[in-house]
């Protein structure tokens, strides 16, 4: 139709589907984007603005956990629905790429801890970026840490670290802390930035 496309996730579930989309978009000189909203969250914008202060970045940790008891619903409808990683983990995979660039290697392990579910409900991914940095993503529907649905992140660099949290239910928990020079904190909860 000659339109630009903003698509809900997942854009596709197979390489063949992705190839067809890329071919159509290239042929028509259109832009396609998946609606990964974390890219535009105020905390992530603060993190991006402060990355250069860390020097060479060598590690990223992202963890998003919830405690969900149900075995029915859109995550668990059928195998093609993609399970819990498709529901939340894809946002962390996109955020990893957004923060540290091209991902070169991926190793992942999944578990189905609730046997009544038809797909995985826990995933741990190990990433290696083109820069040489490494990363870890944990997504779980089986436990909570600190707060239900709290996204926790950490980026380590040669000169310091950034710890951050993103939480949709309370602005006070949307934080980013930059720590430089052997643990001396130079910024605490970057004010006015939490969405």
List keywords for this structure.
195 residues, alpha+beta, eight-stranded mixed beta sheet, two-stranded parallel ribbon, 3 helices, disordered C terminus
Architecture blueprint of SSEs:
Elements: E1 5-7, H1 15-28, E2 32-34, H2 42-50, E3 57-65, H3 83-100, E4 103-111, E5 122-129, E6 134-140, E7 151-157, E8 160-166, E9 175-180, E10 184-187
Parallel strand pairs: 1-2, 3-6
Antiparallel strand pairs: 3-7, 4-5, 5-6, 7-8, 8-9, 9-10
SS element count, helices: 3
What proportion of the residues form beta strands (DSSP E)? 25-35%
Oligomer type: single chain
User: Which structural class should the secondary elements be placed in?
Assistant: alpha+beta
**How many E strands?**
10
Give, in spatial order, the strands making up the sheet with the most strands.
4-5-6-3-7-8-9-10
Order of helices and strands: EHEHEHEEEEEEE
* Mean of all residue-level pLDDT scores: 87
